[in-house]
Each structure stands twice: as structure tokens, then as C-alpha cells.
Here is the input.
Amino acid sequence: DGGITQSPKYLFRKEGQNVTLSCEQNLNHDAMYWYRQDPGQGLRLIYYSQIVNDFQKGDIAEGYSVSREKKESFPLTVTSAQKNPTAFYLCASSKRQGAGSNQPQHFGDGTRLSIL
Amino acid sequence: AQKVTQAQTEISVVEKEDVTLDCVYETRDTTYYLFWYKQPPSGELVFLIRRNSFDEQNEISGRYSWNFQKSTSSFNFTITASQVVDSAVYFCALITLAGTYKYIFGTGTRLKVLA
Here is the structure.
């Protein structure tokens, strides 16, 4: 079955350390997204990519970085510059958005990141 | 500005009761899409429904129904005869085509269905 796989499910970070969250999809979707979820704040967009080798900052990109070298992969790095990284991170993918169309996003199971 | 408001933070109902989750949106764009997602305790968001701004027909899918009213900028979600398995956080989201195709999510409503 096609889907989105996020790993690991739980991740712990030490102060000053960079960590990378994995997101892989086999849905043949062009677009991929990273969201951060905090209690009571819903989902906030970190980065998104509509096509390979291209990505855009979302609403809260500071302290994060991404790459999109392959269609099926969109890893997110939480850098030491992100001062409050403890959150639940969700990756999503969709067919490419475009004028006259809209596509629902499909989500992974999430990664819960905590600071040691 | 675009915004989605889910004023109900948490709702508790007893099994078999009907429950309505409210969603109010703001946008100046004339073409937009509204979505509802369910987030069970396992964490992933599950797509429930998509509605475009030109289609105000209400929709029913089993125990779920959606009421879209442009006049009040609302897209409410009703669960009939609720079940314990309906317990989850439900998100309403907006995307407009005049923007950059980014979803705007509401803050979610946590529904607890008690046996």
C-alpha cells in the first residue's frame, strides 16, 4: 500500500545538536510539506516543496532546514538555532497544487521530538 | 488575511449523541477549498472531506455530514450517533488558489465520546 513513512517515531535531542527527521512517500506525489504541531496551536507550516530541487519557507522556517533531492524524500533538519524544538512534527504529501485544482494532503504518523 | 477559527477547543458527548464541530473561515479570495481532517491518538491526520467555494451543497457520508454556508463563512461538521471511535482531534483547513497553495489550519477541536 502507498503511504508516507516518518521516522523515527520518537526522537531526543541534546542542547546544541542538529537532528534530522525522515519523511519518505511512495505515492508518487510531487508536493511535500512539513508541519509542526504544538498543543492548542494546530498545525503550522515549516517548509514545503512543490517539485524536486525546489522548496519554500513556510510560516515558521527559522531554525529548520530541508532538502528535496529525490521526489520521494523530504528530510527536515532541526538545527541548534531552533530554541524550542519540542513538538510533534508531521510530514505530508499531495499531488502538485495548481490553478484550478486542489489536492488533499496525505499525512504520515508523525515524529515526536523532545529535548534532553 | 486568511484564517480558520475553530472556537470549540474540546467537546465531550455521550455515545449515540449527535455533535457538531464548528469551523469559520476568512478569506478575500473567491476561489478556495475547505477540508476536514481527523487526527486519532495515533497521530496521523486522516482526510475526511474537501469542498470548493462554488459548491454549497451539503454532503452526507454515513454518520458524517457537512454544512457549507458561504453567507456565514462556515463549514460545520456533524457526527450523528457518535461512537467512541470518533474520539479524536478534528481540524478544519482552508487553501486558496490566489495564494501559494498553503493550507491554513484551524487550531482543532478535541472530541471525546464517552461510553
